[in-house]
Design goal:
By secondary structure, the protein is mainly α. The protein has 24 helices and no strands. It has two domains: 269 residues, Up-down Bundle (Growth Hormone, Chain: A); 218 residues, MFS general substrate transporter like domains (Growth Hormone, Chain: A, Up-down Bundle), CATH 1.20.1250. Helix 5 runs parallel beside helix 7. It is globular. The C terminus is likely disordered.
């Protein structure tokens, strides 16, 4: 039978909760993708230079990392998690409304920093809660979760495009160098690497005329159902003050194991005092337990190895989407600016398509098998790009292949790492934060290499990073075989027969 009966029963029980977590990630996708296309119009609203406005990227990304780390601190109760998700998704709608009224780049940076904190909390909490609910079956649900990120990231540029200015939206008396090729400047803007904007000069003084405010207000309206859905979930669980007809808390490991084994529902009110005490230890439970401090070296090595792999792969996503346009318009391809502008859109569309394909694939394949296919595909895509570097068709085909294969690395790695560590949820915060750091830092490093070594180094960096990620994956497989599974089972107090077998293996 293609669908597992126990999995369907578990999904039906947590249907509204799961859909809510999925929908919250649409907010994440909307907020992470709108800044690039609208940056020139925001420059006009704030009357700032290109170098000044690109630092708004840094404010958002840095606070996203902070929010990702803080998100793990809210996991000790479901009520706290849902409260943070409600607040974060509501803040994102408010940010969309407020942005058009920001008339100074410093104010805009503060607003985007607040949005980044909200995005980070959403990222960590949603991943963490799905892992805690579905455990060894979480891979397919994580794939759906990250599909909605891609969906939101595709949606926001489409909404913004009709409202973007075709000419410099600051009406100056004279047209300065660079204002005649606004689309080229827009595509050349790279997050976290403002130095490449120094040779573009646009007007700073004069009345600003732009309709981009309507795009932000439309996105605010589209995002508004998300906090409403979270609020309804809180209400259904009796977590709204004055409506406390139910009690909500996280499923513990004991409860979920009993649920899968026996197929019956266990209410939160039946938790033992021991389970309550374990839950109340909160964010630092993994560090407080004797298992952590007495853990073998493989416990720490798995965390480090998985984190570095995601540092590389998410860094590849960031640097490729940021620099593929600049690579295409330079030698040896020298594509037209309009043609090269389709490459970042093709890359993100391929990522979204790949995540859609990965949903049924992850149900049939183990996370480590998915990772093997993905990382081999990423390395193969870069080798194909190098071999066909002088052809436009090769660049477009290679970009599509890269997007499809790199799309599901993060959810597969998260599911595989938690599988090795027996789904305690301790690794989620580490992996989410490491991925965010990689996306920010590698853009800066690769940008510096391109400036000093030339455009060809763009693909060389990609091959090097993907080869290193695949090598570390082999190391992770070795660590998986060396890591003592019975230690994890004892710490979780589960003695289910066959528990040490790999889930999903066919």
């Amino acid at each position: 039978m293609w669908l597992d009966v126990n999995l369907l029963a578990l999904f039906r029980k947590h249907l509204w909760t799961t859909i809510t977590y999925w929908s919250v990630f649409i907010s994440f996708g909307l907020c992470i993708a709108f800044l690039g296309p609208t940056l020139l119009d925001l420059r006009c609203l704030t009357h700032s230079s290109l170098q000044e406005i690109t630092w708004v990227f840094f404010a958002q990304q840095f606070c996203l990392l902070v929010g990702s780390t803080l998100g793990g601190a809210f996991k000790k109760s479901l009520k706290l998690c849902l409260s943070v998700l409600f607040t974060s998704s509501l803040i994102i709608s408010m940010v969309f409304v407020i942005i058009p009224f920001c008339r100074h780049v410093g104010v805009l940076a503060v607003v985007m920093a607040v949005a980044g904190l909200s995005m980070g909390c959403i990222d960590t909490i949603s991943n963490l809660q799905l892992v805690k609910i579905y455990k060894q079956d979480s891979a397919v649900f994580l794939q759906v979760l990250h599909f909605f990120v891609g969906f939101g990231a595709l949606l926001s540029p489409l909404i913004a495009d009709p409202f973007l200015s075709d000419t410099s939206c600051i009406q100056a008396n004279s047209t300065l160098n660079g204002s005649r090729n606004l689309e080229h400047i827009r595509n050349s803007i790279v997050p976290h690497h403002p130095g490449n904007m120094s040779h573009y000069v646009l007007p700073l003084h004069g009345p600003a005329q732009t309709n981009v405010a309507y795009a932000f207000w439309i996105m605010a309206a589209i995002n508004l159902p998300v906090p409403i859905a979270v609020f309804l979930l809180m209400y259904s669980k009796g977590m709204v003050p004055g409506c406390e007809h139910k009690r909500g808390s996280l499923l513990t490991a004991d409860e979920l194991a009993m649920e899968i084994q026996k197929g019956n529902e266990i209410s939160d009110s039946q938790m033992t005092e021991t389970q309550e005490a374990q839950r109340d230890k909160g964010h630092f439970y993994c560090c407080q337990s004797k298992t952590f401090w007495n853990a073998p070296y493989t416990f720490f090595a798995v965390h480090v190895c998985s984190a570095v792999i995601l540092f590389m792969t998410d860094g590849i996503v960031g640097e490729y989407s940021g620099f593929v346009y600049s690579y295409a318009v330079e030698e040896p391809l020298s594509l037209a600016h309009k043609t090269a502008g389709y490459l970042p859109s093709l890359f993100w569309a391929s990522i979204t398509l790949g995540r859609l394909i990965s949903i049924p694939a992850s149900y049939k394949m183990a996370p480590r098998t998915m990772l093997f296919i993905n990382l081999i595909g990423v390395l193969g895509a870069f080798l194909f790009l190098i071999l066909s570097q002088n052809t436009m068709a090769g660049l477009f085909i290679g970009t599509a292949i890269l997007g499809i294969f790199i799309s599901s690395v993060f959810p597969s790695m998260l599911a595989y790492t938690e599988d090795i560590l027996n789904y305690k949820g301790c690794a989620t915060t580490v992996l989410v934060t490491s991925a965010g750091i990689g996306e920010m830092v590698l853009q800066i490093l690769v940008g510096m290499v391109i400036e000093t070594q030339g455009s060809y180094s763009f693909l060389v960096c990609g091959v090097s990073l993907s080869a290193l990620a695949f090598t570390l994956y082999i190391v992770l497989l070795v660590l998986d075989n060396l890591h003592p599974r019975e230690l994890n089972e004892t710490s979780l107090k589960t003695s289910e027969p066959g528990k040490d077998e790999k889930p999903y293996q066919q």
